[in-house]
C-alpha cells in the first residue's frame, strides 16, 4: 500500500443477482487531494462509494480508508469519513441550525458542543444569515451546502461526495464547487463521483475513469487528455464552398485524419507542433484565398476522453486499465 494513499481498493468485486456492479475495481486516492470517479450511469461509481464507506460489503477484494480495512474495521472507518449522497439528507421542517445540531447529537456530541459546531459550520459554509430559517426556504445550492456541512460535524479527514451537484443549476453548482475547493485546500481528502465532465476538470487533482465495474484509466485531467491524442486545430470557414480547399490545406499539415461538419462549416484535425502547424495553416489559407471565421488550437477535452475510454455498446470490449505516469 502506498504510504500517501488514504483510500485504497484492490480487486473489489460485487454482484447483485445477475448484475455485476464491481468487477476487479482498483483505486488509490492520494492524501489531501480531490479524486474524481468519472463514468456513465451503471458504471459502478456509487457501488464503489458504498463499499468504501462500509455501507456494502464486497464479495471479494479488499479496501481500506485512512489505514483501516472497510470490512474488518468498519467502525473505525466510519469515525474518519463524511458522506454526502446524491440526495440531501437534511430535514426541510427544521432550520439550518437545528439540522446541524441534530446531526451533532446523533454523533454523540453533547448539547453545548453540538450547538457550537453548528454555528461554526453555518459561518464556514456561508449560511450564517439563513441559519434560523426553515429549509423549505433554502435554494438548492444552500441545501447542498448544508448537507456538506452536516457531513463535517466531526471534521473527518476523508469526505465522499456521490454526485453532489446533480440537479443543481450552474450558480448553485459553482457555490458547491467553491466549498469543495476550500475543504481540499484545508487538507481534507475528497473522493468525488460525477457525471459532469466539467466538474471533474474543475475540481479533481486526479481522475479515475470507471466503466463496467472497473477503472479503465487513471491520471490527472491533463494526462488523460494527452492519452487520447495530440493538440488539435479547429477551423470554421466563412463560405461553405471553400470546405474542399480548406480540407486539403488542413490535411497537408495535420498529424491525422480531418474531421468535418459541413453544416457548421467546421473542420478539425490533430497536429504535432501546434504553433508551427497554426502558422502554416494561416499562411496557406491566406494564399489560397480561403476566409476563416475562426481558427483555434485546443487540447482534447474530458468529454473526448470519456467517449474514448468508456464502453459505447454492450458488446464493445472494455479497454485494459492503465495508470498514466
UniProtKB/TrEMBL annotation:
Organism: Saccharomonospora marina XMU15
Keyword terms of this UniProt record: Antibiotic resistance, ATP-binding, Cell membrane, Membrane, Nucleotide-binding, Translocase, Transport
Record has Hydrolase as a keyword: no
Family per similarity comment: Belongs to the ABC transporter superfamily. Drug exporter-1 (DrugE1) (TC 3.A.1.105) family.
SMART domains attached to this UniProt entry: AAA (SM00382)
Protein's name according to its UniProt entry: Daunorubicin resistance ABC transporter ATP-binding subunit
Keyword Oxidoreductase tagged: no
Gene Ontology molecular-function annotations: ATP binding; ATP hydrolysis activity
Classification of source organism: Bacteria, Bacillati, Actinomycetota, Actinomycetes, Pseudonocardiales
CC per GO annotation: plasma membrane
Residue span, ABC transporter domain: 7-237
Subcellular location: Cell membrane
Amino acid at each position: 500500500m502506498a504510504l500517501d494513499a488514504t483510500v485504497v481498493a484492490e480487486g473489489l468485486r460485487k454482484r447483485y443477482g445477475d448484475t455485476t456492479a464491481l468487477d476487479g475495481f482498483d483505486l488509490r486516492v492520494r492524501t489531501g487531494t480531490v479524486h474524481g470517479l468519472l463514468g456513465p450511469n451503471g458504471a459502478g461509481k456509487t457501488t464503489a462509494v458504498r463499499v468504501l464507506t462500509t455501507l456494502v460489503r464486497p464479495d471479494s477484494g479488499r479496501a481500506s480508508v485512512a489505514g483501516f480495512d472497510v470490512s474488518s474495521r468498519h467502525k473505525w472507518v466510519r469515525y474518519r469519513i463524511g458522506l454526502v449522497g446524491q440526495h440531501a439528507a437534511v430535514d426541510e421542517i427544521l432550520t439550518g441550525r437545528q439540522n446541524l445540531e441534530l446531526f451533532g447529537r446523533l454523533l454523540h456530541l453533547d448539547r453545548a458542543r453540538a450547538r457550537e459546531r453548528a454555528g461554526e459550520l453555518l459561518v464556514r459554509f456561508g449560511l450564517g444569515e439563513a441559519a434560523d430559517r426553515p429549509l423549505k426556504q433554502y435554494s438548492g445550492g444552500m441545501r447542498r451546502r448544508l448537507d456538506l456541512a452536516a457531513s463535517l460535524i466531526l471534521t473527518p479527514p476523508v469526505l465522499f461526495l456521490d454526485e453532489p451537484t446533480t440537479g443543481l443549476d450552474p450558480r448553485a453548482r459553482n457555490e458547491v464547487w467553491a466549498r469543495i475547493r476550500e475543504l481540499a485546500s484545508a487538507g481534507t481528502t475528497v473522493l468525488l463521483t460525477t457525471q459532469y465532465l466539467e466538474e471533474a476538470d474543475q475540481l479533481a487533482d486526479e481522475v479515475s475513469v470507471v466503466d463496467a465495474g472497473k477503472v479503465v484509466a487513471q491520471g490527472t485531467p491533463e494526462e488523460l487528455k494527452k492519452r487520447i491524442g495530440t493538440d488539435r486545430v479547429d477551423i470554421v470557414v466563412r463560405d461553405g464552398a471553400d470546405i474542399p480547399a480548406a480540407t486539403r490545406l488542413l490535411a497537408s499539415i495535420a498529424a491525422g485524419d480531418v474531421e468535418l461538419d459541413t453544416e457548421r462549416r467546421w473542420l478539425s484535425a490533430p497536429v504535432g507542433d501546434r504553433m508551427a502547424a497554426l502558422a502554416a495553416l494561416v499562411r496557406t489559407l491566406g494564399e489560397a484565398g480561403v476566409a476563416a471565421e475562426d481558427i483555434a488550437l485546443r487540447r482534447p477535452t474530458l468529454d473526448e476522453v470519456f467517449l474514448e475510454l468508456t464502453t459505447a455498446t454492450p458488446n464493445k470490449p472494455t479497454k485494459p486499465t492503465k495508470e498514466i505516469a
